[in-house]
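Forum > Structural Biology > Help requests

Title: Can anyone predict the 3D structure of FAD-binding oxidoreductase?

Hi all, first post here. I have the sequence for FAD-binding oxidoreductase but no way to get a structure on my laptop. I'd be grateful if someone could post the structure tokens.
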Amino acid sequence: MGPVVEPVDPEAHFPTQADVVVIGGGIIGVSAAHALAERGISVALCEKGQIAGEQSSRNWGWVRKTGRDQREMPLIMESLRIWEGLDKRIGADTGFKAAGILYVAETEAVENHHSAWLQRAEPYQMGVRQITPDEIAKLLPNTTKRFRSALYCPTDGRAEPQKAAPAIARAARVMGASILTNCAVRGIERTAGRVSAVVTEQGRIACNAVILAGGAWTRLFCGSLGLTLPQLKVLSSVMRTAPLDGAPEPAAWTNDFAFRRRQDGGYTIADGHGTLVPIVPDTFRFATKFLPALKAEWKGLRLRLDDRFMTEARTPKTWALDAISPFETTRVLDPTPDVANLMKVKDRLIRAFPAFAGMKIEQHWAGLIDAMPDAVPVISTVDTMPGLVIATGFSGHGFGIGPAAGRLAADLATGSPPIVDPTAFRFSRFSDGSPIIVEAGL
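Reply #1:
Sure, ran it for you. Structure tokens for FAD-binding oxidoreductase below:
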């Protein structure tokens, strides 16, 4: 069972028309809806389940510049600026705090890897620096380890995933957006080749543009439209503790674990290295495109054949718009967490930081992350379907970058000057012969 997410009340009225329809109520979708509503553009957001019911409430809650792919750096800089003033702007608490994040190096190889990333990031003046063992000891006191070095950014922050997207959705509604929950979109209608409406389980909404921000569901929805999106899912497991005194204030990543302090005084803890990848039919369909990522991340990947293979094999790929869709039969992706691995993470964390010895684990959960072959999102118009914007594939980077990514999607849907150059995020890069480049990020 996933974490408890702050609720968003059902919409009182169903709109039959909007300028833009947003599909998906995660951090990207609600940020897009909010950006549109701020401009006075009529917008309806359709979420098949609850707001932030999937990965937008299940992630670590990190809001970081450190470790970003160069292609994401302009977008994360804009996103941090939005986060810093977001609570005041929406009149609600997202839990954002610039408490700093450390990426710790325990070996010379990791230290060199950090140094190389820092050189790539230097033109962006992100405020990240490489710090010494003594500086680490001050930021992460009472550890049994003496680390070689760390990348540290004091203005990197954290926010509360169970609060943020619902707060933004409620603010968008105040500005006039329709926020529809338990309202799956079954498909898109076109007139003269251009988007003209969406068909939902509750009825039809005429519109001029659609922003598809469906997270791990986006591949399936695109396929029903005849669009091939090379997207796979990876599983991340997390645990949450009760309030705990004496543990570090900044968030930290090591090869063995990652943690960040929560607003309630507890901690969110996860594996620092190691991604579980369910083998599904699309694994074979997209094997060639994901081969560069497989080579780059082989040591950190755990491939697993489990029940997801048959689940996805049996899922209909097309359906009639007047029939129940797969988005209605499964409202929320709620995978089983890898508790056995989390217990190993817990033991490693306690050995390094004895202050965690008395922690009480309150909950475990897992989420399915939408991943792209180059680990860079798609935020793009679609040449063959005017009026459609896709915003997906954030590959575990989406929460922190979400407010600016939603703003960029809103810009593209309305033809406004984009907040950043969207070229690196174009959908066509997977079909126009461009090489798939996997940057050595963190």
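The chain has 13 helices and 21 strands. The mean pLDDT is 96.
Shout if anything looks off.
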